[in-house]
Amino acid sequence: MARNARRLIGRSRELDRLAAVLDAAAAGLAGVALVGGDAGIGKTRLVTELCDRARRQGFVILVGQCAELGDALPYLPLTDALRGALADPAGPVVSAVEARPALRRLLPGHDADPAGAPVGTLAQQRLFGSVIDMLAEVAGLSPVLFVVEDVHWADRSTRDLLVFLTRMLQRERVCLVATYRTDDLHRRHPLRQVLAELQRLPLVTGVELRPFDDGEMAEYLSTLDGNDGAVVTRVIERAGGNPFFAEELLAAAEDRGGLPSSLADLLLARLEALSDTAGQVLRVAAVAGRRVDHDLLRDATGLADLPLEEALREIVSRRLLTAGTDGYVFRHALLQEAVYDDLLPGERTRLHATFARLLAERGGSAAELAHHYLASHDLAHALATSVEAGRSAARLGAPAEAHRHLEQALELWERVPEAEALAGASRAAIALLSARTAAAVGDYHRAIHQLRRLYRLADDPVVRAETAERLAYFLADDDGDAGEMLRMAQEAVELAPESPLRAMALATYGRTLWYNLRVDEAKATATRALEVARATGAHDAEASALVSLALQEEAAGTADRAEELLAEAVGRSDDLAIDLRARFNHARVQYERGRLRAAGPTARAGIELSRENGLTWSTYGTDLRFLDYLVRYAGGDWDAAERLAEGFPVRVGTRAEATLSSFALFVEVGRGRPGADERLRWLSKFWSDELVAYISRGMAAEQALWRGDPAIALEHVEAIVEALDPSDAGLIRVVATGLSALADAGRPDGRGDDLLGRARWAAENGPAGPRAELGPEGAAWLARAEAEWHRARGTADPAVWRRAADAWGFGFVYEEARTRRRLAESLLESGDRDAALQEWEAATGTARDLGAGPLLAALGELGRRARFRPAGDSRQAAEPDVLAALTGREREVLAHVAAGLGNREIGERLFISQKTVSVHVSNILAKLGVTNRGQAAAIAHREGMVSGVADGNTGNTV
Asked: Which helix (H) or strand (E) holds 546?
């Protein structure tokens, strides 16, 4: 039977599950599969079959292999996958990789440690963003299958990358598959937590390979050649359902006439049948790892080409190694482990030394060299290459591996003569870099511990100054002891000479003073930091000080000066993190001042910078994207805002994802999209986070109001009010929503007075005292809250509502339209029908332009009740064109719905699928502000849409 057929025995169900993920990815729904099972159970066979199927379906295949090298090589499977894909110069991956420096540095022949490259967290964000952008670009041409094998051996950064991709992939045509050994996952294995986290996500499909039962094993063995019934029976009894063990037992029985007694004996039994030369070649290959280059193996064995090739032919024929394009791979990792473990200690040390020498001659990676030098007990070279590997990993965006390498160097330091000369840096410099990398992976406890120890031991004032500055900075990041951070920052300023270090120390000291609400001192210190930065040419410290001063000016109510300082900071720093921080705050201040036309281009310039540098998913890259979304939302460009929100994840798993996802609700609720319900279900898991709850529960309250459920809206409002700081200006918006709910419920109780009192207090008071200035949006929300309070009390004065409507005139078109709806109502109650009609028409036009279905439906109901008659209209009553928000296709679908056709019949008439019809119907219901097909049909009949539909002609129905 063919090899492919053997793969499927006993695994058809698992393959079907993987194929379903593959098919979903091809259709535009990204998916992740985690394939687990014991060593030898058939994971690679199953994934190989999936790759064959994907190849037939036109997928781009990326396959990367993790290796047991003690985290020596960060991102090894990604490097492996890219190297394999680039073997096809005409493939779609080539241009996608070449356009991204962060990915190019992973490949052989490229500089992995360029001067000026970002280090730590920023470098990792840059790499992660480049990977997902590359996958999205390639998937735009052909769907992608990305396989990562043996993630139980993955380094920390690779595990973080897998988690990132699993959370970020949404609508890309990408299928990510990872395999792992279940029998290697001991209680404290780092992959356990990752698997537990990922397997809770619906995007993830878990596939656990069980052992074969006796019948499946018998069928499997029957496909192998050269066996008899008695041997097969004994193999089935001994193999425990593991197909790899069964093959090895069968091969050992054929070679030796008996069955080994233990697993190690089983794996090593195959070697006894090899010639002496072939056995030696296999032992040398085991020291290299799972994979070895042909030329490297030749030099390590010292054999001439002919005897080496004869030995390799023998090994490959016995299926111990598999030949590739440029080298050899052990057929199974267990074989490599067994051969390596069987080496004598002296033999192992000697071979590691040989590989270290050969790799050094070939310019091998510092991480590989450090691994072999350490295993060969060459501590001097191990220290030097560990430092080099740490620096390279830090710049590559693998701070966890960088920290491990640097810690290894520090552990060797006292055991190596002239360590400083070998490392090319002092012990203090290495310790500082090690602390930075620990902080980059979020291990502030470790970073702070290292810095405290270094601070106690350091006798050089400059070293103490730099150590104290970093300690204060990380204490602030970690919300540490306020007294210690102030002392350390102050001492850094006192010890640092007039230099860029002093400028940074002053900037950090100013930050800690602001953190402790010592406002005047913070401003004076930031001003001094700016002076020193300019005098010493410290551009990074200069930009940082400018941003700090701008934030202080903003808090003081001098927003014009804040904008000037932020504009000056933009582009000043070579540090991308500082530059993006400046750009975000510049756009944010412009937005909060109501300068939407200026804020949009500022935000988009920052987004473009982050995209060019692979930082789309960095902290400020993400913040800039949601700020751009808010500018478009407020300015009325809802179509563009909704397109941007397509990249905001729905199935969120982290606080950062939940924050970004929350913003999509502004348009989804405003347009009545049914997808808002699913998004809210996911976000509800993060309502313990203040920002996520503020945005998403606030929008859930607005959704409840549109659906006529003020009680639910009040529940959300009260939860947010209790969680927010009383001085938070965001409280004003929530209060306005709560007062609207009280008005809708017709319950003008004491809660209204309490809510309005909270809004007024927040408008007048900030965290550090009386508020200097309330921005235009805050002022508009306060005016709305005052008007809603009057409405709840039944005393709606048109003048109050007009003030509220005019307050939105700075450019927030949706909120202005919503307020003008209430102004029209109050004008009607006061008897001024002409003015009411004018406000109603203005609000209706805006709602129609935005596609704001719920607002348009509410205005339609108001128009019907008021029986408005616009000037020049001979009809008794005019109503808004409630169908204006529908696209042409949606009008066609609605006409058929009104004619009584089902989705299948509509699809046949319009030559579209039933699923597409269902999507159109959902959008129609949302835009019309109705809950079922019957209500939508009634509107269509009223508008005269159904004539001509029965015979299939919809040309005159709209």
From this structure: helix 539-556
CATH of the domain at 293: 1.10.10.10
* Tokens coding 659: 């924050």
At 491, list the tokens: 């001492």
Residues 68 and 99 in one domain: yes
Q: 271, 290, 310: which is the final residue of a domain?
A: 271
Q: Is the pTM of this model over 0.90?
A: no
**Which among 381, 406, 380 has a CA at the least distance from the CA of 392?**
406
CA distance 956 to 952: 11
Do 236 and 288 reside in the same domain of the chain? no
Same domain, 935 and 855: no
Residue type, 628: D
The last residue of a domain, from among 271, 295, 317: 271
Instruction: Specify whether 123 is located in the same domain as 258.
Output: no
Is residue 661 domain-shared with residue 773, that is, in the same domain?
A: yes
484 or 940, greater pLDDT: 484
Query: pLDDT grade, residue 880 (50/70/90)?
Result: low
Note whether 791 and 860 are same-domain residues: yes
Return d(Cα 387, Cα 378) in angstroms, integer: 14
Distance between CA atoms of residues 584 and 745, nearest Å = 40
Residue 502 lies in a domain: no
Give every strand in the sheet of 204-208, ordered side by side: 60-65, 144-149, 174-181, 31-37, 204-208
Element spanning 815, H or E: helix 813-830
Task: Write down the pLDDT at residue 259.
Answer: 52
Contact 24, 213 (CB under 8 A): no
The answer to whether position 386 is within a domain reads no
Is residue 71 in some structural domain? yes
**810 and 672, same structural domain?**
yes
- pLDDT band, very low/low/confident/very high, at 911 (cuts 50, 70, 90): low
CB count in 10 Å sphere of residue 490: 17
For the chain, how many structural domains are there in total? 5
Does position 956 have pLDDT exceeding 60, yes or no?
no
pLDDT at 680: 95
Buried b (16+ CB within 10 A) or exposed e, 37-68: bbbbbbbbbbbbbbbebbeeeebbbbbbbbbb
Angle in degrees, CA 798, 804, 805, rounded to 5: 85
Q: Distance (Å, rounded) from C-alpha 956 to C-alpha 175? A: 45
Residues in the chain: 958
Q: What is the pLDDT of residues 221-244, one digit of tens each?
A: 877 765 567 778 877 877 778 888
Q: Mean pLDDT across the chain, nearest whole number?
A: 86
Domain around 245? 215-271
Residues 196 and 223 in one domain: no
3-class DSSP string for 757-784: HHHHHHHHEECCEECCCCCHHHHHHHHH
Burial class of residue 768 (count of CB atoms within 10 Å of its CB; 0-12, 13-18, 19+): middle
- Which among 525, 533, 549, 537 is positioned nearest to 472, based on CA atoms? 525
Does 820 reside within a domain?
Answer: yes
Q: Which two tokens stand for residue 743?
A: 């008005």
